[in-house]
Amino acid sequence: MNPLEQNLLQRIEANPKILAGKPIVRGLRISVEQILKLLAIKTSETDILANFPELEPEDIQACLLYASRLVEGEKVYSIAS
User: Fold this and answer.
1) From CA 35, how far away is CA 64, in angstroms rounded?
2) How far apart are CA 54 and CA 6, in angstroms?
3) What is the CATH number of the domain that holds 11?
4) pLDDT tens digit sequence for 3-47
5) How many CB atoms lie within 10 A of CB 32?
């Protein structure tokens, strides 16, 4: 993992006392899931940052990198029909 990725992923944490342990951004009550859903419905980064002023652009990058890491190790198996 390169240093940029390492720095970004340090922004994502899981704390059982916040949002039941879901991955969150920098200890805030903003989940990775929430940011990904906003991006999926085409909410612009500018709008996300305006609606969540405590977020930084790198937080959005971190959410995307975190999600890519989750699916990176995913294995797909063919199911015979």
Assistant:
1) 9
2) 21
3) 1.10.10.10
4) 999 999 999 999 999 999 999 999 999 999 999 999 999 999 999
5) 23
> What pTM does this model have?
0.89
Tokens of 44: 């612009």
CA dist., res. 54 & res. 28, Å (int)? 8
Contact by Cβ (8 Å): 4, 16: no
Q: Which two tokens stand for residue 47?
A: 């709008």
Q: Report the amino acid identity of residue 2.
A: N
15, part of any domain: yes
Q: Which two tokens stand for residue 41?
A: 């419905």
Nearest to 15 by CA among 34, 35, 5, 30: 30
Cβ(52)–Cβ(30) below 8 Å = yes
